[in-house]
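call fold(seq) -> tokens
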Amino acid sequence: MERLKGCSRKLMILLALLVLTAGLALPAAADMGPKPSVEVVFRGLEGQRYQVTLLADVTQYGPWSANQGYSDWMGDPEGWDAFAGYPAPEGWYFLGEYADCTETGRFVWSYYPPETFYVLVWLPDSGRYLCSTQPVSRYAFDSRFTAAVEGNALTVQPSYDYAGEAAGLVVRAALTILLETAAAWLLFGLRRRDQWILILKVNLVTQLALNLLLNLCGYFYGPLWTAMAYGLLELLVFVAEGWAYARWLRWGEDQKPHPWLYALASNILSFAAGWELARWLPGVF
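ret:
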């Protein structure tokens, strides 16, 4: 037991170094693939017609510009005139993106949304405007906010589903550990208590680290970079697990040791299963 504790400490140090290496290797955002988005869900405007835009603190951002004129593809010309004519606070600008949110109850700016913005609502039936009490900023690749209307006040708060993301992380890690321990039992005959303890310890560390890094990558860089990082991180997990099993896993007298083969087989199995399940359970995988 003392030996296993010493092994666990060494394994923790090794995996911490691997996690740090992988974290430093995560790519910076670039002008390719999916772009960051902003989603604002409204509460308190049910039953009313309204259109929404975001006021930016820059005059140009991506394809959007405060100096462009109206074009037919932009939508309702009345909405354009209303937002273009709004007396925005000094240093804040209407960039031309807006939408009628009456039916959906949400506004989504999915291509080059401004980094910092006010939420501005126009109610055409009364000609009234509602502007958020203070500006807010994007905080993730897909930033989600809730806008609550009370009287003439519009309050905007971040509303990212951290609890759901954490639950998804735990489910992914648990299913991966289940698959890898099943492979140990069924394919390699690793059924002794000391073997199971080591395999569980190794997988708890590697799979939690893997899924945490995947969550962070998705949070900051989006689905494209997450998919690209998935293979790299799985490779690092394979190296860490193979090294740990080769060093500490004790095989039975009637078993021929195959630590690297077991690490490879179990990680291919979990990688393929995770990739496939991501198509069916995108909210969890």
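DSSP finds six helices and eleven strands in the chain.
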